[in-house]
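Record filed here:
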Amino acid sequence: MREKSMRVDEFERKVFELEEIVIRIRASNDVKVGEYDYERQASGAMSVTSWIQTRIKPRLGETEFSIIDGNYQYPHGRTLLRRLRKTYEAGNY
């Protein structure tokens, strides 16, 4: 059985649409990554680190990426997703 994949830009867009979190993958758009096939947004009580370990890393593997908050900073791993999502509300991003 062949694993589903998507382009880097599609993955970034899908994460933002569902999770309301900005991710930037450091790879050319030719690189295929695992499909972000979740239907429900991750809980706001989940930490950034936990979210990365359970939802992002399994699909990106060793491909480098960054999570960027609404202030163009890298959030601490213990930051809760609800707090990260609030940083985008100011409209900075």
Notes: DSSP finds three helices and four strands in the chain. Strands lie at 5-7, 22-25, 32-34, 65-68. The longest strand covers residues 22-25.
